[in-house]
Structure formats: structure tokens, C-alpha cells
Specification:
15-stranded antiparallel β-sheet; 269 residues; mainly beta
């Protein structure tokens, strides 16, 4: 069933890419590349709704199919109420399934980025994260509240290439006596190349490091997607991922192989 879903989704991307000649003419190479890069840029001020299904076919030390379904809404502000700079507020929640079939809510994450610097080369932003333990089972999320700073650097003056880095930190602030304190970071190196017809390809892995033990999880992925414009702007993609390296005993990412299917709606301010 999952393999069929992947095939159907890939077919949708290919079908969407086969635009009419009229639409192709209305999107010149420069316009199409610019459109794609604006949609992918995490610091673009735009209302967004992002849905992503991560189908996990192999989990370390466990049998059975697992999945993480992510809902992410992005709220843009041209100027904050207290800090008078452009900013983005992200609301992220999950519906997860463990390898044994247990399904329920994952944790809720709130993120706020302040866009502090905008130059010809790109943008720099800083903010904070808070992770709220809304999971319905300990297999599906963390039992602790966590908070920490976040930073992003985006490089956009690279022609058809685009690169951005996101660095998020999470430090537990509850349950430390019961569960032990937690301190880790998520680093997201993103590199994409966009063609003139709206097709793009690149990587967007989520690398993790535990500050207390030094243990890491370094997955690698490869995303192929298509961005097009109608009444709104849209982004659809497929992204296989494999665990390239994981330290023995690293607890937060046990996925060895999976495939992400994503769809995003984008509404400029």
C-alpha cells in the first residue's frame, strides 16, 4: 500500500510538471526559478500550510511499519508587536504511528524566527523553540517540556542554487528529576537546485547531536519536487531518506529508511 502511494505521488509530480505551452510561456526561466526559490526559502514572509507524510519502512531494532504525519502552519508578521522586525511563527504538530501499530498525537512545537538582517546575499534570523509534550503515548513523543534558541542563515544570491541552514536547540525544563535532563540540537543543511520549469532537487536532512553525550544521528535524503502557481502557489515533493550514521544508543531518531511525501500551499502577504 505504501509503495503504491509513493508511485501515485510521484506520478502527480510528473503530471503537474507537464504544463501547457501557454503556462510555460507565462513563466519565463528567471520568473520560475525566482518563484521556486521564494517558496523554498524558510525566511520568506508568506502564509503557509504544509503537510508531510514520512513513511518509515525500517526502524532500528524493531519490526513493523511506522509513520510520522506532520502538520505545519506558518504565520508571517511584517512587524512584531514588541520587536519591530519581520518575523515568522511556526506551529508544528504530528500524528505518529509506532512500529508496533500504536497511533496517536506526537509533540507540539512552536517556533518564532525574527528576521534580523536582509542583504543581497541572503538573510539571517534568530528566535526560539518550545516543545510541548502533547503525545498520547511515550512511544510517540517526549514526556518533557523543552525550550531553546534557534538560528537560520539563507544564501539566495547563488543563481539557480539555494542554500540555507537552520540550527535549533532543545533543553528540557520539566521532568528532569524523573527522566533526566535533555539537551540536544537539530541542524538542517539545505541545498537545492531549481530548473526553469519549476522542478527542483536537493537535500534537506535533519542532523541531531546530543550535547550531553556527544552522540549523533546523521540521516541523508534526496528530494525531488515541483513548484507551480495557480490561485495560490504550490509545492509537491518526494524524498527518500536513509540513516547514514547513528551513534550507538542514540535515542531520538531510530529510523533507518523511509520516504517523505509533502505538499505545501503558499500565500504571499
Amino acid at each position: 500500500m505504501s509503495a503504491l502511494l509513493v508511485m501515485l505521488f510521484a506520478g502527480c509530480i510528473v503530471g503537474a510538471a507537464q504544463e501547457t505551452e501557454e503556462n510555460k510561456e507565462s513563466q519565463s526561466g528567471a520568473t520560475s526559478v525566482k518563484l521556486s526559490q521564494e517558496v523554498m526559502n524558510p525566511t520568506t514572509l508568506a502564509w503557509q500550510l504544509q503537510l508531510e507524510e514520512y513513511a518509515i519502512f525500517k526502524t532500528e531494532g524493531q519490526d513493523g511499519f511506522a509513520q510520522n504525519f506532520r502538520f505545519r502552519g506558518i504565520i508571517p508578521l511584517k512587524e512584531g508587536f514588541l520587536i519591530k522586525v519581520p518575523q515568522l511563527i511556526r506551529v508544528i504538530t504530528f500524528l505518529n504511528t509506532a512500529p508496533d501499530g500504536k497511533t496517536g498525537l506526537g509533540d507540539l512545537t512552536l517556533n518564532q524566527f525574527f528576521l534580523l538582517t536582509k542583504k543581497d546575499w541572503g538573510e539571517f534570523g534568530a528566535g526560539w523553540n518550545i516543545q510541548i509534550p502533547t503525545r498520547t503515548d511515550d512511544q510517540l513523543g517526549s514526556p518533557q517540556w523543552s525550550i531553546g534558541p534557534a538560528f537560520t542563515v539563507t544564501f539566495t544570491d547563488l543563481g539557480k542554487w539555494q542554500m540555507y541552514w537552520i540550527w535549533e536547540n532543545f533543553f528540557s525544563i520539566s521532568g528532569n528529576d524523573k527522566y533526566g535532563s535533555s539537551a540536544y540540537a537539530v541542524l538542517r543543511p539545505n541545498v537545492f537546485y531549481t530548473w526553469a520549469n519549476g522542478v527542483y532537487a536537493g537535500i534537506e536532512p535533519e542532523w541531531q547531536i546530543d550535547y550531553k553525550t556527544g552522540k549523533v544521528a546523521i540521516p541523508m535524503d534526496f528530494r525531488v519536487g515541483y513548484i507551480w502557481s495557480g490561485k495560490l502557489k504550490y509545492n509537491a515533493y518526494i524524498e527518500p531518506e536513509v540513516m547514514a550514521y547513528r551513534s550507538d544508543g542514540y535515542p531520538r531518531n531510530s529510523s533507518n529508511f523511509g520516504v517523505r511525501l509533502g505538499f505545501r500551499w503558499y500565500l504571499p502577504m
